[in-house]
């Protein structure tokens, strides 16, 4: 995995990172966008089950809404509006979310899924962070955790096909 901050001359605070995942671009794209698959990977690494509710209307202009957290009092909410969909190569969304602390934020997320060897190089560029500290948290925690969970889900799925 590589991580770097976006161009400091950009108009908005952004981050870019990549991760090589041992699955096809179709498998990774579908794991990221399919509500039923997301319901599994969102909590696949949790020690205790929590709340995960996801609905997806995967079309340009459609939305994905996710609500998740350890309990009713600690829920995160995110609505992503699909701006571009080129399965399995590229996905662009506008993401509006809120945390249990009441903080809200809207960002733009661009994902690319490129075949590389027997895996997929996933690149995420997220822009529109309110402050560098929030960007740094997403870069070091949020996306790393999401990629870890997607990898665990795909390993479990691919292992069950053997």
Short description:
With 162 residues, the chain is an alpha+beta fold. The chain has three helices and eight strands; from the N terminus they run ββααββββββα. The two termini are 27 Å apart.
Keywords:
8 strands
Describe this structure in words.
The chain is α+β, with helices and mostly antiparallel strands. It has helices at residues 25-33, 35-41, 132-160; strands spanning 2-5, 13-21, 51-56, 63-69, 76-86, 90-98, 104-116, 119-129. Strand 7 and strand 8 form a beta hairpin. Helix 1 (25-33) crosses helix 2 (35-41) and helix 2 packs across helix 3 (132-160).
Main sheet record: 8 strands, antiparallel
Query: In which order are the strands of the major sheet placed?
Result: 1-2-8-7-6-5-4-3
Radius of gyration: 15 Å
How many strands appear in the DSSP assignment?
Answer: 8
């Amino acid at each position: 995995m590589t991580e770097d901050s976006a161009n400091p001359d950009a108009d908005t605070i952004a981050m870019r990172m990549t991760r090589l995942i041992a699955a096809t671009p179709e498998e990774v794209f579908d794991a990221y966008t399919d509500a039923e698959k997301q319901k599994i990977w969102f909590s696949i690494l949790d020690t205790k089950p929590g709340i995960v509710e996801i609905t997806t209307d995967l079309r340009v202009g459609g939305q994905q809404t996710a609500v998740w957290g350890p309990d009713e009092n600690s829920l995160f909410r995110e609505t992503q509006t699909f701006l571009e969909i080129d399965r399995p190569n590229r996905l662009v969304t506008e993401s509006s979310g809120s945390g249990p602390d009441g903080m809200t934020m809207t960002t733009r997320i661009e994902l690319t899924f490129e075949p590389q060897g027997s895996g997929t190089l996933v690149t995420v560029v997220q822009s529109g962070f309110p402050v560098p500290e929030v960007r740094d948290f997403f870069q070091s925690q949020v996306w790393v955790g999401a990629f870890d969970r997607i990898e665990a889900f795909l390993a479990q799925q691919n292992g069950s096909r053997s």
